[in-house]
Amino acid sequence: MSALDALKPVLAQWTTRYRRSPLPAFLAWWRSELIGCLPEKWRAWLQDRREVWLASIDGQQLVLQRQGQPEPIASFDLSADTDSLRADLQRLLGRGPTPDRLTILTLPQADVLLRRLPFPAAVEQNLRQVLSFEMDRQTPFRAEQVHFDFHADLDDSGRQLQVDLALVPRPVLDNLLERARGLGLELDGVDVLAAAELPQRKGFNFLPETMRSRRSNPQRRLNLILGAASVILLFLVMQQSLANRAQSLDTLRERVEEARSQAHAVVALRGQLNTAVEGAGYLNEKKRDAPSVLRVLGDLSARLPDDTWLERLTFRQGNVEMVGQSGEATKLISLLQDSGTLASPAFAGQISPDARTRKERFNLNTRYEFRPDVPLLPQPSEAVEAAEAPAANDANADDLDSDIAIKTGQAAQGSDADTDAADPAVTDDSPASDDAGADGDADTDAGVDNGNDEEGA
Known about the structure:
By secondary structure, the protein is α+β, with helices and mostly antiparallel strands. Among the domains are: 115 residues, Nucleotidyltransferase, domain 5 (2-Layer Sandwich), CATH 3.30.420; 167 residues, no CATH class. The protein has twelve helices and 14 strands. Strands 9, 10, 11, 12, 13 and 14 form a six-stranded mixed beta sheet that branches. A hairpin with a 2-residue loop joins strand 9 and strand 10.
């Protein structure tokens, strides 16, 4: 068994399914609509232009006529010389089959048996074999005694086949085929004439496959070329689509890499910014926590009585140590309780009298704690307000020194001119002051070492 024979049942099954589907009717409608949109010349070129010539042999007469035409094309007397008849037919029909003409040998209805038979739809794929088996039951002939053909249509329910069976006895058809072959007549089929005013065929073909003429169909060749071109174009479109997709992917990858590099740059800049912000915050925190010398001096100048002066003022890690003399040192604790810059005042050691100044010498420790909600009481003098101006203003710094000198001078009126107590020393040993950028000790009437003068402004 050849591969083609093995494929025939499969092809028959798919052909049956195709015929049962609504696709053929849709394609026929679509084709007619598309052809109707074309110009007249194109429509004539796409339509089936093959002519159907009907040949009938009636006794000693051969008649050729076009299907649907009442007048015959030619008529030949078969009793004449055979060679002359063959020559005349060749001049009329040409040598061999032509692609634009079909030659059909027609039989009268008296020689053909027509029957309409019902069958289940399941036998459609093997309908010819079923008809061969049922031939002796449905007709007075056996299958090997006749040539037959059929048309099958499904009914509205889709479960029943209505089969139009046409058959002709083998001796009748074989005799006609032998006479046509003797005349050199190339046949495309054998059919029966329909009962109509104009000559029409019914659409059957009793001619065996082996005896049908082989001709080239230009439309089939054109369809094959168009199909091959469609496949090639589809392949090119797919390739172009893949190329476009690859190009788009490459472009997208480039954009992603560019965005990734920009993101890395942004992350690096953000890290640098965070580092700078953290550094600035650390410095601001140190500045905020570091004692403000000018603020403390202004507060002390406002709160300490006139008979009190300081010999040494030391800032060390948030603690403030004051060493000085006062007319009544015990009152200093109560005076400093409500301070806006100092908290938890306490004496370090005992209060001792000074024989030269007749004052009480004290050593007082406290902690720096700025409380902006506590006002300075009593109000500071204009000289103290000048001391709280920006440290960059050198004139204000000189006024501060003068104020401190006046405060200490009032407290030392009864002392000797060369006393060392009149020059109090203010120092700041706090590490925060060093971090804030202190430049060193200043040997002035009031030596101040603190880089946070701008906070006291």
